[in-house]
Amino acid sequence: MSTEPSYESTLRELATDQGVLRYHEAGDGPPLVLLHGSGPGVTGWRNFRGNLAALAERFRCLILEFPGFGVSDPTGAHPMAAAPGAVLRLLDGLGIEQADLIGNSMGGIVAAQVAVSHPGRVRRLVTVGGLGTNLFSPGPGEGVRLLTEFAERPTREALVRWLHSMVYDPALVTGELVEERWAQATHPDALASARRMYGRAAVAARTAALAASDAPPYWATLHRIRAKTLITWGRDDRVSPLDMAIVPMRTIPDAELHVFPDCGHWVMIEQRAAWESAVLAFLTRKEAP
């Protein structure tokens, strides 16, 4: 594409029975839904705007803004619990029977959950870090602990510490990025969402609930995914260390793992060209007869 798609030209709204979903749309072709991660000041647009031009040359790209992060209407549910339903409401509202899904961190977990519960809706699945469980590294990772610090005491300094944990190259943490993230992170909805997800009380409650539940954790259900899957990871990820990739790589029946060097948690940003090349090759690969 000759020009980068703009925020205003791509922004769309979809009225649903649980409030308005906002998303960005660009390109023609098979549908490709992009799902953002969590963290202070996150939006789908900020996660994937740099990749939109390349992906929209081959796909109808739909960047969903999850409820509870200050862009789409909140549903009242925990943001992680509301997210899979939001994906299905987007697909249903746009009349899309099946799509490819790309999910970054939390978005990858959500995409995997949709692929487990509604296998017919997902053709191919791409995840970016975050999927699985710590096997050798201590959990939670450094970046998640810094998220808790920010949720408890949201300051610019805490935001900068968290941003530095996200990347391999500290030069990516520019003043512009900090101010952009700070403005979104201090939105009342976004702050409430951060506390519900990463505040100390929320983390303790979630840990206790998991210990008391007979339901398996989501990563123990990954063997039920039927979509061809590409797991992408930064070798130097300090949010979700690389050993987390082992369980999904081994248990998803048709999964491949691509690890990018000199790269933190934001693979699609920090290794943009290499990541886009690998993802496009995977998504456009012909099915074997």
UniProtKB/TrEMBL annotation:
GO terms of molecular function: hydrolase activity
**A Pfam match:** Abhydrolase_1
Among its keywords, does the record have Hydrolase? yes
**SUPFAM superfamilies according to UniProt:** alpha/beta-Hydrolases
Q: Which Gene3D superfamilies match?
A: alpha/beta hydrolase
Where does the AB hydrolase-1 domain start and stop, copy by copy?
A: 30-270
- Keyword hit for Phosphoprotein: no
Which InterPro entries does the record cross-reference, listed alphabetically?
Answer: AB_hydrolase_1, AB_hydrolase_fold, AB_hydrolase_sf
Provide this UniProt record's keywords sorted from A to Z: Hydrolase
Annotated protein name in UniProt = Alpha/beta fold hydrolase
